[in-house]
């Protein structure tokens, strides 16, 4: 028997971003460009949810998109486009029908049957929430969030009614009534626990929103920013997740804008003995030795760029700041000496108490944060070099 000819391969998908997507750093046009890069793309916008001009907020996203993709494209390729926003968006992906007629034009939703405001939808499988790849039938069910809230209210009322029944049963002498009351109490307790589990959402659904934000901030600021999160499997109530989002966005943005700049440090003025210029030629000659001759005495120096792994290129005219503690001295190679500033030293937090070479932190006049170098620790780091120099001569 001859096989039927296979039609063009591809996918039909619909996606809608959350209304605050653009405020959080997601650009829908970039997502559409990435989809176009996968293959032949036909895109139609769903604008039925766009409010009137008087009610429109420019930073909110109210548009959804129907996309028909034609080509040898895997489902994973499509999901990779939305990897940074998967946890908070609506995304439906279906294989493209083999009939040629289905390829003539993209699927356009009938405005008459599309609801004017799509419900907030969560996927409930006992342990996770958010948009996920299609699951097998029976493994999960998608329920509007407001229905979960209504069900939780009914469970709360049931717990109150059960408590009243328990008081009545234990106040009387009817053993059968007491037995039924205890059974209902057990079932109510299990129902409440199950309901609480349905409302629990892994914090990974919250952390995932920041990846695109940090990616775009790193691109816009030119900074090397790495976002590290831990405890993604921890589950908390979905209402708490929603209330945590805005404060955490502020923290992430503030950290990216005013975080510690690579190579920006403060040296206590009382420890500074003098400053010298280290030319490129002298720097090249000193490679492998890392010491200078200062008034007939060899002084070891440390390259802060290498010590703190800034990953940036050295300045053409570097400086050596010679610092002392007691009778010991060491040179610190820096790119620039910005100036003399009056600062208020803040102690390191308990989370950073074990970080070596820093005595504290301060806020500079421009709002940036700089770390205070621990001169005694740095001198101790250089002492082995100095001892070898003394032994050599």
Describe this structure in words.
This protein has helices spanning 28-36, 75-81, 145-171, 175-199, 204-207, 209-221, 238-258, 280-286, 304-307, 375-392; strands spanning 10-16, 40-46, 64-70, 90-95, 121-124, 141-144, 200-202, 235-237, 265-266, 272-278, 291-293, 298-303, 318-325, 328-334, 358-363, 369-373. By secondary structure, it is an alpha+beta fold. It has four domains: 10-118, Alpha-Beta Plaits; 145-202; 204-258, no CATH class; 265-392, Beta Barrel (OB fold (Dihydrolipoamide Acetyltransferase, E2P)). It is extended, with a radius of gyration of 32 Å. 16% of the residues are buried.
- Say which CATH homologous superfamily of the largest domain is assigned: CheA-289, Domain 4
Shape: extended
Tally of contiguous helical segments: 10
Strand order of the largest sheet: 10-13-14-12-11
What's the helical proportion of residues?
Answer: 25-40%
Q: What portion of the residues fall into strands of 2 or more residues? A: 15-25%
- Summing up helix and strand content along with how strands pair, one would put the structural category as alpha+beta
Low-confidence stretches: 1-7, 99-138
Could you give a short account of the major beta sheet? 5 strands, mixed
CATH class of the largest domain: Mainly Beta
Gyration radius, to the nearest Å?
32 Å
Along the chain, the helix and strand elements come as EHEEHEEEHHEHHEHEEHEEHEEEEH
Based on the coordinates given, report the CATH architecture of the largest domain.
Answer: Beta Barrel
Summed over residues and divided by their number, the pLDDT gives a mean of 77
What is the number of independent domains? 4
CATH topology of the largest domain: OB fold (Dihydrolipoamide Acetyltransferase, E2P)
Find the count of extended strands (DSSP E, 2+ residues): 16
**Span from first to last CA?**
93 Å
């Amino acid at each position: 028997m001859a096989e039927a000819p296979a039609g063009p391969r591809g996918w039909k998908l619909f996606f809608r971003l959350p209304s605050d997507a653009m405020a959080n750093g997601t650009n829908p046009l970039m997502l559409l460009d990435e989809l176009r890069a996968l293959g032949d793309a036909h895109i139609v916008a769903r604008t039925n949810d766009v409010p009137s001009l008087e009610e429109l907020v420019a930073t909110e996203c109210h548009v959804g998109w129907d996309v028909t993709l034609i080509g040898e494209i895997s489902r994973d390729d499509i999901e990779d486009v939305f990897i940074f926003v998967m946890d908070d968006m609506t995304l439906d992906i279906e294989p493209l029908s083999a009939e040629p007629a289905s390829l003539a034009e993209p699927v356009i939703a009938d405005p008459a049957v599309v609801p004017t405001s799509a419900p907030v939808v969560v996927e409930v499988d006992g342990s996770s929430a958010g948009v996920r790849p299609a699951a097998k039938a029976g493994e999960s069910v998608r329920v509007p969030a407001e229905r979960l809230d209504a069900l939780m209210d009914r469970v709360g009322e049931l717990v109150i009614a059960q408590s009243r029944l328990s008081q009545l049963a234990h106040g009387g002498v009817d053993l059968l009534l007491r037995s039924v009351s205890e059974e209902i109490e057990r079932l109510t307790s299990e129902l409440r626990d199950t309901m609480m589990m349905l409302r629990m959402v892994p914090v990974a659904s919250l952390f995932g929103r920041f990846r695109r934000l940090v990616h775009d901030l790193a691109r816009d600021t030119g900074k090397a920013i790495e976002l590290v999160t831990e405890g993604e499997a921890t589950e908390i109530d979905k209402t708490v997740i929603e209330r945590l989002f805005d404060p955490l966005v502020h923290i992430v943005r503030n950290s990216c804008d005013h975080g510690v700049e690579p190579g920006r440090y403060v040296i206590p003025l009382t420890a500074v003995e003098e400053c010298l210029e280290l030319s490129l030629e002298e720097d090249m000659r000193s490679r492998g030795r890392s010491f200078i001759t200062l008034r007939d005495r060899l002084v070891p120096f440390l390259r802060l760029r290498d010590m703190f792994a800034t990953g940036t290129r050295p300045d053409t005219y570097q400086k050596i700041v010679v610092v002392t503690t007691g009778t010991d001295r060491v040179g610190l190679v820096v790119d620039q000496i910005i100036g003399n500033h009056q600062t208020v030293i803040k102690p390191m937090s308990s989370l950073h108490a074990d970080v070596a070479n820093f005595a504290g932190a301060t806020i500079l006049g421009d709002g940036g944060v700089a770390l205070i170098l621990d001169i005694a620790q740095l001198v101790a780091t250089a002492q082995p070099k100095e001892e070898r120099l003394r032994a050599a001569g």
